[in-house]
């Protein structure tokens, strides 16, 4: 028997809410939304953690400009605090090498990190999910009690079609969904908002495409000034208590 | 010290089995440790002895090491993991998360990083014995 899964919820028990920022589709801005969401919650005075679960293409360390941080070994792994966030990522171990992991390896690495990471007491833990509705999403649903999803889409009908399926799947699995956020909006179209409401899920916000976000990667001060961060702060205030 | 977290997982899992099997007292716990994770046996053993609850007080923990076999998914070549061939920093990264082996190890025959860890990955609870 694999003993690791038995301690996962013990490790997470001092965390008030655990939110997976997810999308069935890639390239919709999940990592930026997850990072700005954690920064917004930290600014509110909450104790927050960020866990980058996109093992094959991690990017939150680049967004945050993480350089030399490393976890400490103390009856497990204690993640470092970066920009006020307790921050865990596979990049501490894989460095700048490609980590070509298949589904079973992703599951195993996820279980390993969940079972040995000592998060301590947090108000919120945000998990930056990899795209797709495959192994990682199913593992999070299976292993993390009290998980809630915040789903990101773009105005593209292609992205929303996958998100629609993802919402239906999570609803079938009775997993709470905080809402759907429309990122990189180019105009005032209401299609995604209406589509989300038809699914019986809250439409959180439409975030206009902001070219300044790219310049702000690696610089948290600049990132906090972007339109994206401003909108995410409003979402945090209105929808995440 | 990462071994403490693994020891806690072993005790919790054994406790769950004991409850399920209605065992009042645990006498023997057999654990297999895959060489890929390079768990320090002494630390694991010490952590287990310190963490054991009341119904484990007379329990013996038997820890055995299992060789790690890696098998290439491209050419089918199978080989044994040998820690000494790795840089210390890389060995330590693999100790914490064995899957990062895919970032550093390649098939010695064809050079592919697409291999499976067929045997001997990490800590495995093999068996427990107790009295009802």
Short description:
With 241 residues, chain A is an alpha/beta fold.
Q: Would you spell out the secondary-structure blueprint of this structure?
A:
The complex is a heterodimer of chains A (241) and B (132).
Chain A: H1 8-11, E1 15-22, H2 30-43, E2 48-52, H3 60-64, E3 72-73, E4 77-78, E5 81-82, E6 85-89, H4 91-94, H5 103-116, E7 122-128, H6 135-143, E8 147-153, H7 157-172, E9 177-185, H8 191-198, E10 203-208, H9 212-215, H10 220-224, H11 227-239
Parallel strand pairs in A: 1-7, 1-8, 2-6, 2-7, 8-9, 9-10
Antiparallel strand pairs in A: 3-4, 5-6
Helix pairs in contact in A: 2-11, 5-6
Chain B: H1 2-20, E1 25-34, H2 41-51, E2 60-66, E3 69-72, E4 78-80, H3 88-96, H4 101-104, E5 115-119, E6 123-131
Parallel strand pairs in B: 1-2
Antiparallel strand pairs in B: 1-6, 3-4, 3-5
Supply the key terms.
heterodimer, A: 241 residues, Rossmann fold, eight-stranded mixed beta sheet, 11 helices, B: 132 residues, hypothetical protein PF0899 fold, three-stranded antiparallel beta sheet, 33% helix, elongated
């Amino acid at each position: 028997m694999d003993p690791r899964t038995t301690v996962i919820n013990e490790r997470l028990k001092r965390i008030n809410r655990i939110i997976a920022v997810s999308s069935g589709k890639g390239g919709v801005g999940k990592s930026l939304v997850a990072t700005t969401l954690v920064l917004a919650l930290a600014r509110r005075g909450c104790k927050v953690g960020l866990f980058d679960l996109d093992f094959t293409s991690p990017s939150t360390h680049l967004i945050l400009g993480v350089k030399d941080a490393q976890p400490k070994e103390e009856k497990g792994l204690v993640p470092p605090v970066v920009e006020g966030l307790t921050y865990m990522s596979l990049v501490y171990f894989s460095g700048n090498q490609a980590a070509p992991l298949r589904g079973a390896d992703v599951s195993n690495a996820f279980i390993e990190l969940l079972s040995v990471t000592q998060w301590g007491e947090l108000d919120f833990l945000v998990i930056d999910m990899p795209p797709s509705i495959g192994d990682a999403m199913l593992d999070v649903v299976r292993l993390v009690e009290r998980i809630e999803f915040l789903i990101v889409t773009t105005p593209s009908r292609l992205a929303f079609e996958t998100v629609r399926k993802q919402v239906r799947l999570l609803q079938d699995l009775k997993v709470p969904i905080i809402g759907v956020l429309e990122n990189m909006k180019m105009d005032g179209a209401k299609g995604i908002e209406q589509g989300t409401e038809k699914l019986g899920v809250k439409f959180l916000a439409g975030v206009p495409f902001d070219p300044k976000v790219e310049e702000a990667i690696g610089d948290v001060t600049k990132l906090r000034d972007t339109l994206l961060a401003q909108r995410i702060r409003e979402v945090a205030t209105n929808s995440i208590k | 010290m990462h071994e403490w977290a693994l020891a806690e997982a072993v005790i919790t899992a054994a406790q769950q089995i004991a409850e399920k099997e209605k065992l009042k007292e645990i006498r023997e716990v057999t654990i297999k440790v895959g060489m890929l994770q390079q768990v320090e046996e002494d630390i694991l053993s010490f952590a287990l002895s310190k963490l054991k609850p009341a119904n484990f007080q007379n329990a013996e923990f038997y820890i055995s090491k299992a060789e790690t076999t890696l098998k290439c998914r491209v050419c089918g070549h199978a080989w044994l993991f040998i820690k000494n061939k790795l840089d210390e920093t890389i060995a330590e990264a693999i100790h914490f998360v064995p899957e990062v082996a895919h970032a550093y190890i390649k098939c010695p025959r064809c050079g592919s990083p697409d291999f499976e860890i067929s045997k001997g990955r990490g800590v495995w609870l093999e068996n427990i014995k107790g009295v009802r």
